[in-house]
Amino acid sequence: MEGFAARSYGTGGPDNRPLFGETSTRDKIISLVAGGLTFVLLVIYWYQQGDLEPKFRSLIYYILFSIIMLCVCANLYFHEVGK
């Protein structure tokens, strides 16, 4: 982004402030957990209703498998297994 000039927005200098104020890491984690839990609960509800096309059911299975494999790989990496 070297070719773009920093915008000052009338403040006299570059304005690097967040749009909605400072957010802590704790707030971000809480938001991610709440959003993820809401998504999972909605998918479970949708799945239990039985009004789900087979292509979406296989997509849900694929996504769940991908998330589980990502978690397994992350744990192996963080615990330095195989070094």
Itemize the secondary structure elements and their pairings:
Elements: H1 25-49, H2 54-78
What is the H-and-E element order? HH
Strand percentage lies at under 5%
Rg (CA only) = 21 Å
Overall mean pLDDT stands at: 79
Tally of individual domains = 2
List low-confidence stretches.
Answer: none
**What is the rounded distance between the termini?**
38 Å
* Structural class computed from helices and strand pairing: mainly alpha
Q: Figure out the total of helices.
A: 2
Question: What's the helical proportion of residues?
Answer: 55-70%
Largest sheet composition: none
Overall form: extended
> Would you count the extended β strands for me?
0
How do you describe this structure in short?
By secondary structure, the chain is mainly α. Helix content is 60%, strand content 0%.
